[in-house]
What we know:
Number of strands: 6
Strand content: 25-35%
Structural class: alpha+beta
CATH topology: Conserved Hypothetical Protein Mth637, Chain: A
CATH superfamily: YggU-like
Radius of gyration: 12 Å
Low-confidence stretches: 1-5
Helix content: 10-25%
Distance between the termini: 18 Å
Number of domains: 1
Number of helices: 2
CATH architecture: 2-Layer Sandwich
Amino acid sequence: xxxxxxxxxxxxKAGVLLLSVRVQPGATGDQIVGxxxxxxxxxxxxxxxxxxxxxxxxxxLASTLNVPAKNLSLSxxxxxxxxxVEIRGLSREELTxxxxxxxx
Length: 104
C-alpha cells in the first residue's frame, strides 16, 4: 500500500507531543514520504539491526523539526515499524506547520 496524504495522529499528554510514525528502514535515502494509516511515513537509510534505525529516526526527526535530539524519545515500537515518538519543546501548531508540506 502506498503512502497517502491523510491526517497524521498527533496526541498530547502532560505537555509532551506524541507522534505516530511508520518507518521503512534500509531505504536509499532519508525522507518523509507522507502518511500511512494515520502515521507519518519515513524512509531511513539505517538498517533495522541493533537499534540503528531507531537512533537514526530520532536524529533525522530532530534535524527535520529543528529541536535538540534530547527532546525526542521513542515511547513505543522499539522492534516494530510502527512507532510513537515523544516530542518535547515544540507546540502542536509548530509541529503541524513543519509537517504541512508532507501531509494534509
